[in-house]
Amino acid sequence: MGPTLNEIVISSGEPEKPAENITYMDASLYKAAAIGKIEEFNNYQRPELESLKTPNHDNVLHVNLSDFIEQILFKCPSLLRQTNAKGQTPLHVAARNGHSAIVKLLIKSRAKATDEDLKKLGMDQLNAVREMLRNTDQESNTALHVAARYGHVEVVQELLEFENPDFPYFVNRNQETPLHIAARRINWTALHAAAMAGDVGTLKATKIIVENKGDMTKETDENGHTPLHYAAHLGHDSVVEELLKWDLLAAYVGDKEWEMTPLLMAARQGHGQIVTKILSSCPGCCEKVDKRGWITFSFCGVKEQIMELLKDITNEEVAEKPVRPIPSITISADRLEKEREVHLVVAALIATVTFAAAITVPGGLKKEKGSEQGIPFLIHDATFKAFIVTDALAFLFSLCALLFHFGMLPPFSSIQRPTFLSHVGATTFLGYATYAMVIAFCTTIYVVLKPSYGLSFVC
């Protein structure tokens, strides 16, 4: 038995439309939908979930676009197609809020629709997804219109992934396509888009635009760039020529950040033909400078300096001074192999000697039966303790050196030759093992010869 609900039957008032049964969500259900508590909806079947709405006609998917969507859609897939009072589907709401993961989940859920449902609609999975993507709200906006308006790039990418690239998106009630909306966010005009494309088709579009709206040549985006700025920067010669035919003053406009004119941008990018075209049409442009006080020839000079510097570096000299190359450490594989063999013998000897010394400790062991049998006589001597520590270290370091060398051999190594870094590591550990062994030897001699001060002093 489900929670208490107020059931209201709402009629559209139009005889050709059937009455719509709506069950308004109470506070507990609304809260459950908001936090994604799917258990509260387990007692509702598909027809009941379809009629469960808020006063604004939002269904449970509109209330909460979260992880529990997949479970709700499994119970009632038709919720994907339901709209609220504004004609928005759950996909519209997800696109508006920039939830790219949820947009992907909704599309995936639509693609997983059962064959029976698709058969009723007379379409396959791909067409079912595209039909959902092309649903419009009361303002004739698709989900792509909405995502473009709010600047959610990831959502736009998810929506375009399943759409036919040749599909001509219709305009909304404000005569806007998704491209127009996206362009307006950064104050781009259609002429900006045409100038950036720069191919043969857009050259014709450029002519049509300037013939009908010639004042667009002066319009700037949020960075202060005109269409001529983009055409000059990208090296679109024909577009630059067409724009200059209609408006020469656009060549004198500087951008917001650096006050760079289209001429300076073309010079910076090394577009010589465009520089020539602009100067031939607007010779006064050469006097325009940017914020640094640079003119057209400043960029040309800097470019020449960079090329000369690169040429000098290639010849191992800068400003006629020889450049000393950084020496590289090289060592032959044969030499590494020979040193490895020697190191293996030395490391094995150190490991053997230190292991034997640990068993036959200096001073001997107590042989009397009792709790102290087998304990070294000199266990409380500080020098003896130093011997034990250094002997153990020598043994461990020699084992590390052996492991490094074994790791350099196939099949342990991914290469057939010993590597230089492994060689350095093995050599380092072998050096530490040698030092520790020498100290252990000295402490052994000292602790044994301690009664003879003359001999012990030598060590």
From TrEMBL:
PROSITE patterns: ANK_REP_REGION, ANK_REPEAT. Keywords: ANK repeat, Membrane, Repeat, Transmembrane, Transmembrane helix. It is a multi-pass membrane protein. Its main location: membrane. InterPro entries: Ankyrin_rpt, Ankyrin_rpt-contain_sf, PGG_dom. The chain crosses the membrane at residues 342-365, 386-409, 429-449. GO terms for cellular component: plasma membrane. ANK repeats lie at residues 86-118, 139-161, 223-245. The keyword Nucleotide-binding does not apply. Residues 335-448 form the PGG domain. SMART domains: ANK. It is found in: Membrane. It comes from the Eukaryota. PANTHER family: ANKYRIN REPEAT-CONTAINING PROTEIN ITN1-LIKE ISOFORM X1, PROTEIN PHOSPHATASE 1 REGULATORY SUBUNIT. This is PGG domain-containing protein. It comes from Gossypium darwinii (Darwin's cotton).
